[in-house]
Amino acid sequence: MYKRLTKLSIVNLLIPLSAGMLIQSVRADNPGPLPMSLQRVPVPPVPGLLDGDNPIVTNQSMAIALGKALFWDTAVGSDGVACASCHFHAGADVRTKNQLAPGGKNSTLPTAGTFESTAGKNSGGPNYTVTGKDFPFYQLSNPVDPSSVLIFQSDDVLGSSGTFAGLFSAVLPNDYALSSTDSNDICVRSADPLFHVGGLGTRKVTPRNAPTVINAIFNYRNFWDGRANNVFNGSSPWGDRDPDAGVWVKTGATTVQHQRLELLNSSIASVALSAPVNDTEMSCTNRTFQDLGRKLLNRYALATQNVHYQDSVLGTLSHSFGNQDPHNLKQGLYYTYFDMVVEAFNPRYWSYAPRNSFGSPGPGVLAYNQIEANFSMFFGLAIQMYLSTLISDQSPFDQSPRDANGLPTQLSVSAMNGLNQFMISSCANCHIGATFTAASVATNAQLAQSYPSAFGSPSIGLIKTSGSVVNRIQSVAGSTLMDTGFSSNGVSPDGADIGLGGVDGFGNPLSFSLQYLQYLAGNSAGVYDAPVSVVSPCNFQLAFAVNIPAPLVSTFTQAEGVMPQASGANGCITPSFAFQPTPSAVRAELAKSSSLKTLAVVNGIYKIPGLRNIELTGPYMHNGSMSTLDQVLEFYARGGNFNPPGKNFSGVFEQANLAGDAQNRADIVTFLKTLTDERVRYEQAPFDHPAITIKDGHTGNNVAITTRNPLSPVLAADNVLTIQAVGAKGNAAPLKAFDQTLSR
Predict the structure, then answer these.
(1) Pairwise CA distance, residues 424 & 32, whole Å
(2) Burial class (CB in 10 A: 0-12, 13-18, 19+), 419
(3) Which residues on neighbouring strands pair with residue 408, listed in sequence order?
(4) Which of 252, 278, 628, 732 is the most exposed place for a label (fewest CB within 10 A)?
(5) Regions of the chain short of the pLDDT cut 70
């Protein structure tokens, strides 16, 4: 059905940036990037959040506590789902039941709307429990030979089970005077047309795998498609793109104004405003953050969940603290969410008493007040404050001393060969720097100033000085503009998931590359993100415009019209690239039905994930299609599964050193396991947490449901997975890798 990957052609071997030009061994004169420690790497600053004369957050420790409580509280969801329900295990999701979705997000494949049978010869579908035999979702007779016989493939996705959804009516009970025990919203619920078994509704499943939230604070944008904007506007995930965004600010004793908010390096806060109002993940349809504020503010935080008295953040605020009996933990904190917001945030965002400025849930219902109207800002920033503490920088790789060449000296022989192979195989070009991802744009740009050798030689064209949000690379389709930190590795066919080719809530493209072309064409109305206007072509891997008279097929020259790049030439990696096409030249190329000069492949492109704690954060890839790191290495050894247009050709290709040597693959896995922070493995502070009940599929199986849900007789009853509260000292038992949770 789909175009499979084939052997590299001679033409493809002529691409300028090939594996042979990168790294031959781990040594001081290596031109490639050398992975580095995360220790002492600062979190990107957020001007105006904690600093200045009138900061938004006035009590940092309480804001972190508020964020941790909100992240783990199942009352945040409309039917018992917390943010942590999809991020409870090393920041990721290892559930195995009711986790399948039929195809990727906005898929155009003919099988996108139907569940397929699994590799284990089962029917799959809603409420199915995946097994080890079901992975990977693309199987060859020889997993390291792309020309071998195709045994199985499926475009189903292993995502995360979320909500039943339904049409939102009100929060419980009586809208405002809330009970501390009932957390289900009033919604008109029915069996979903797609997610059901025998007519009984099952919980919906997300069409993408849930990545870990640990170290996500370093990502310039978040979500697989980058839709969580770097700029936090206080009321939506869309940053400056949202014309109506803003927060209510008390400007005088009797006055309040709706003002724009622009907090940089805050994509985690943008992320936080998505799931709680998403009717696949956590919410009934049409619930707003004002409604959520009304629901939560009068509730005691974590009212129905045990909190350990030694919790590194919440312990002293908990009912368990006065008891301090590990066998008799108590539920909740002494604080209501109202108390925590008031203590954490500047009064000008919550202290205005009249209700006449903020709207109402509906006719005859009490109008919102300022603290409810601004709840989205409190929620987003508190979650960000908490997640900014979840930094795993104490892995064996981080803690090992370095020699004069920057190489760790206390790793095993196998791990050191794995590091060598990791670099030889071009892995480090995408999984770059201390965070092991090019998606950490601001962090990588800052680190490159102090540790340039860690980012490779300028001769191989890696962005290392500007923090540019756009690059130009070689893809299957040709020389293409590409958003920095995003790529395609050929794990799924073209059309399986739109990825970065998606749009925001206003129909505007998510991609910076598409905006950059509009910027160059002089169309300011097509630019929604300010960093696009300071992109430096002289830091691209491949030339975009050069100041020569002769025309070129895929590069602008004087023949079309070029000019010095608007951002200036200081700090250029390749000074001869420091030109951009004139607006008229760009407009002329964009007017063509097909232009190699303005090629920007965005469909099927995804954010490059970090690799820290990767042994604990399976399943792997944006579609959750692989269960082990061995499968991941086999995938890269054969050069991927498919050849979609945006596939990064200089980074993903057949690797003879991996395909022909199982030990090299095993050694890379050994190296990757040195990136596991033992505090994460044993849930020690700051990775400790309250107790949580996770919705873990439904009674029965994918053929029949055995019990109906108290929420509605048309819904399936939930199975639950109880995760016990853990304090700062952590657990005695380690977290398991995903494949260790699978039955065979």
Answers:
(1) 9
(2) buried
(3) 402
(4) 732
(5) 1-32, 172-181, 457-467
Give the residue among 520, 646, 629 at the shortest CA–CA distance from 585.
Answer: 520
Contact 605, 623 (CB under 8 A): no
CA 465, CA 458: separation in Å to the nearest integer?
10
Residue 134 has a pLDDT of 97
Both structure tokens of 357: 């400025």
Four-CA torsion 125, 130, 132, 138, nearest 10 degrees: 30
CA atoms of 731 and 688, how far apart (whole Å): 9
Tokens found for residue 178: 């809330």
Find out whether 245 and 235 touch, Cβ atoms under 8 Å. Answer: yes
Are 381 and 269 spatial neighbours (Cβ–Cβ below 8 Å)?
Answer: yes
CA separation, residue 416 to residues 185, 365, 395, 410, 419 (Å): 53, 65, 15, 9, 5
Q: Which residues have C-beta within 8 Å of that of residue 718, sequence separation ≥ 6? A: 80, 203, 695, 696, 697, 698, 699, 709
CA distance 410 to 402: 8
Q: Is residue 6 classed exposed, middle or buried when 0-12, 13-18 and 19+ CB atoms within 10 A define those classes?
A: exposed
Q: What pLDDT was estimated at residue 406?
A: 86
Give ∠ CA 508-509-513 in degrees, rounded to 5.
140
522: left (phi over 0), alpha (psi -120 to 50) or beta: left
- Report pLDDT for 571: 79
Q: What is the DSSP letter of 657?
A: H
Residue type, 129: T
In terms of DSSP H, where are the helices of 259-369? Answer: 267-272, 289-296, 337-344
Residue 483 phi/psi, 5° resolution? -65, 130
The residues with which 186 forms a beta bridge, in sequence order, are 170
CA–CA distance, 432 with 444 (Å, rounded to integer): 8
Residue 27: Cβ within 10 Å count: 11
Tokens 């064409």 belong to residue: 521
- Residue reference for tokens 């035999």: 133
Distance CA 123, CA 483 (A): 38
DSSP E strands, 432-519: 470-475, 478-483, 486-487
Structure tokens at 682: 């044993």
In the chain, the amino acid numbered 639 is G
Query: Nearest-5° angle of CA 656, CA 661, CA 666?
Result: 120
Q: State how far the Cα of 529 lies from the Cα of 506, in Å rounded to an integer.
A: 14
- The confidence score (pLDDT) of residue 372 equals 97
Residue 257, φ and ψ in degrees, nearest 5: -130, 150
Residue pair 704/127 in contact by the 8 Å Cβ criterion? no
Token code pair at residue 285: 């349809």
Task: Say which amino acid occupies 293.
Answer: G
Q: DSSP states of 542-585 as a string? A: S-SB---SS--SSSB-TTT-EEE-TT-STT-SSGGG-EEE-HHH
Distance CA 72, CA 87 (A): 9
User: Residue 247: beta bridge partners?
Assistant: 259
Please give the distance of CA 31 from its chain centroid, rounded to a whole number.
30
Instruction: Give the separation between CA 379 and CA 459, rounded to whole angstroms.
Output: 45
Rounded to whole angstroms, how far apart are CA atoms 274 and 507? 17
The distance between the two most distant Cα atoms of the chain, rounded to a whole number of Å, is 80
Cis bond upstream, residue 686 (ω within 30) = yes
Beta bridge partners of 153: 138
**Sequence-ordered list of residues with C-beta below 8 angstroms from that of 620, at least 6 positions apart, any chain:** 209, 614, 626, 627, 629, 631, 632
How far is Cα 639 from Cα 649, in angstroms, rounded to an integer?
Answer: 9
What local confidence, expressed as pLDDT, does residue 21 receive? 27
